[in-house]
Amino acid sequence: MTLRPLSPTVSVSAQLSPAVMPALAAAGFGRVISNRPDGEDPGQPTAAEMEAAARDAGLSFAWIPVSGLPAPDQVAAVGELLADGVPTVMFCRSGMRSTSAWAMSERLKGADAEDLRATAAAAGYDLGRVPL
Fold it and tell me: Which own/partner contact pairs does 15-23 have at CB distance under 8 Å and 24+ positions apart?
């Protein structure tokens, strides 16, 4: 598991496994957001499996599956969840969709697009083609 911080309260990751949920809770996270649709890859844990593992570890869980660029309603849902400041890990297959959803939600709050791109680049994600 490699967590890449985007802000003091938001980190992103590639696909997580149910087994890492206790470690996330121990590290101080309170929520996991999955941006991965079920069935993208054979053997991938389902959202229901991830939610059960998260809840068993004392974490809240949200499933906002994204295919391609996040849609406006998905961006709004991410923004609403992150507004409370609960330390959160977002994940998808590579972390790119999660990073895009985070950046787009921050842009709606008035964050500078170039600052968001720089933050994402420092975490290893290129948002050059993401409309911010």
Answer: 15/44, 15/45, 15/91, 15/92, 15/93, 16/50, 16/89, 16/91, 17/45, 18/45, 18/49, 18/50, 18/52, 18/53, 19/53, 21/50, 21/53, 21/54, 21/56, 21/57, 21/59, 22/57
